[in-house]
Amino acid sequence: MSAHISVEDVPLSRFHRLLTVRSGGGSFVDGYVLSIIGIAMTKVSPALGLNAFWEGLIAASALIGIFFGGFLGGVLTDRLGRRLIYFVGPTLFILCSLAQFWVQSGEMLFLLRLLSGVAVGIEYPVATAFLVEFLPKKYRGPCLATLTILWFAGAATAYMTGEAILYFGGAEAWRITLASTAVIGLLLFLIRLGTPESPRWLISKGRHAEAEVVIRQVYGNDFSLKNLPAQSENKHLSFRSLLHSGYGKRMAFITIFWTCSVIPVFAVYAFAPKVLDALHLSGGWASYGSVAITLLFVIGCIIATRLVNTLGRRKLLLQSFLWSGLALALLGLLRDGPSPVILLLFGTYALFIGGAQVLQLVYPNEIFPTEIRAGAVGIGTSMSRIGAAIGTWLIPVSLQTIGIGATMYIAAGITAVGLIVSWFLAPETASRSLEDAASLSDERPETASARANLSKNNAW
């Protein structure tokens, strides 16, 4: 019977669940790494004698590192394989975190945080490519979307752990706080031991015998290469040539939608108290509002994870951009409104943007072939972080120069750009095999049938 079953149609197994934990652990560490510096900075600055310039540079260092790490991780993952690069991020997390315990200057801390950011950037393409190339198609969307939730879980853990260490750890506790990532990095390294190479990547390099061994190891001796959907073998096809062959439009879609979805989120997430204050919320409203917005970001991602298959990728993305953009526009229009109304609109934005957030890792892994999958994720990661860094940097300036109303209108405009680009370029990939979703031929009979069924079953 297995001779007729595609590996994309098998039930979710213990291996798939373990691989999700292995790859999701990278997202958890990423959230922890990027958030822990915010907790420690109040102690780091006086201890190292940092001025405002170095405070800002150290805060932005990880984002700079992600820019380079995304490109580097994508290229290396496609060229050298998923399994080898799978251990680069955890290794850098361990070494850089331990080194931060003995840091003596702002320059050294900047360098170590930069390298930690490189590790974060590497994680995005390798962890998601590894995961998507093993998962059955029914579980691709939800499992990839779960990685976004784990990022927020890592950030929340960083806040709780960091505060506890600083409270109980004494004068030098900030050093332990910064070094604490090494523990999680070590656990991540250990749980990834024993992970086999992706058979899809092996086939793309012409290594069919090794791919056969992996398939039998993962799915059982009754399975073989015949159970893996046919894919092209482009051992000598470069990333640039594939983009020119038609994937350039898809790369533009990924880059633009990803960037438009993260700019307002990073700005709001980083400066929620400042933005709420500009909207005339103070005291308990501002404090509880910041917590509520953070929680609603997580809830929005959880809801989107449940809808990514039933609603479909395209419709989820369009609805996410539409309603979150309207919430931002209304925040600009009603900037002097009552506090409950302001918080309701902010909460609406945080809730609905979850769809675009979880699709940041789903879409690029589905609509590109094995040869450039990791590279595409790497480019999307790098370019979106440029937008995030610029948006985060400009928020204080924008609030001071043009005011909160215009700032919210600009954020709504950025979201509208994401909506328009998605309307014209976003494909529907739910219920499609990985090879079919990555194909440039969108008019296959089975594809049209899948789309028609999805539309019929999930019509509003």
From TrEMBL:
<feature type="transmembrane region" description="Helical">
    <location>
        <begin position="21"/>
        <end position="41"/>
    </location>
</feature>
<dbReference type="InterPro" id="IPR005829">
    <property type="entry name" value="Sugar_transporter_CS"/>
</dbReference>
<dbReference type="InterPro" id="IPR036259">
    <property type="entry name" value="MFS_trans_sf"/>
</dbReference>
<dbReference type="InterPro" id="IPR005828">
    <property type="entry name" value="MFS_sugar_transport-like"/>
</dbReference>
<feature type="transmembrane region" description="Helical">
    <location>
        <begin position="316"/>
        <end position="335"/>
    </location>
</feature>
<feature type="transmembrane region" description="Helical">
    <location>
        <begin position="341"/>
        <end position="363"/>
    </location>
</feature>
<protein>
    <submittedName>
        <fullName>MFS transporter</fullName>
    </submittedName>
</protein>
<feature type="transmembrane region" description="Helical">
    <location>
        <begin position="53"/>
        <end position="77"/>
    </location>
</feature>
<dbReference type="GO" id="GO:0005351">
    <property type="term" value="F:carbohydrate:proton symporter activity"/>
</dbReference>
<feature type="transmembrane region" description="Helical">
    <location>
        <begin position="375"/>
        <end position="396"/>
    </location>
</feature>
<dbReference type="Pfam" id="PF00083">
    <property type="entry name" value="Sugar_tr"/>
</dbReference>
<keyword id="KW-0472">Membrane</keyword>
<feature type="transmembrane region" description="Helical">
    <location>
        <begin position="174"/>
        <end position="195"/>
    </location>
</feature>
<feature type="transmembrane region" description="Helical">
    <location>
        <begin position="84"/>
        <end position="103"/>
    </location>
</feature>
<feature type="region of interest" description="Disordered">
    <location>
        <begin position="436"/>
        <end position="460"/>
    </location>
</feature>
<keyword id="KW-0812">Transmembrane</keyword>
<feature type="transmembrane region" description="Helical">
    <location>
        <begin position="251"/>
        <end position="272"/>
    </location>
</feature>
<dbReference type="InterPro" id="IPR050360">
    <property type="entry name" value="MFS_Sugar_Transporters"/>
</dbReference>
<feature type="transmembrane region" description="Helical">
    <location>
        <begin position="109"/>
        <end position="132"/>
    </location>
</feature>
<feature type="domain" description="Major facilitator superfamily (MFS) profile">
    <location>
        <begin position="19"/>
        <end position="430"/>
    </location>
</feature>
<feature type="transmembrane region" description="Helical">
    <location>
        <begin position="284"/>
        <end position="304"/>
    </location>
</feature>
<feature type="compositionally biased region" description="Polar residues">
    <location>
        <begin position="450"/>
        <end position="460"/>
    </location>
</feature>
<comment type="similarity">
    <text>Belongs to the major facilitator superfamily. Sugar transporter (TC 2.A.1.1) family.</text>
</comment>
<keyword id="KW-1133">Transmembrane helix</keyword>
<dbReference type="GO" id="GO:0005886">
    <property type="term" value="C:plasma membrane"/>
</dbReference>
<dbReference type="InterPro" id="IPR020846">
    <property type="entry name" value="MFS_dom"/>
</dbReference>
<feature type="transmembrane region" description="Helical">
    <location>
        <begin position="402"/>
        <end position="426"/>
    </location>
</feature>
<feature type="transmembrane region" description="Helical">
    <location>
        <begin position="144"/>
        <end position="168"/>
    </location>
</feature>
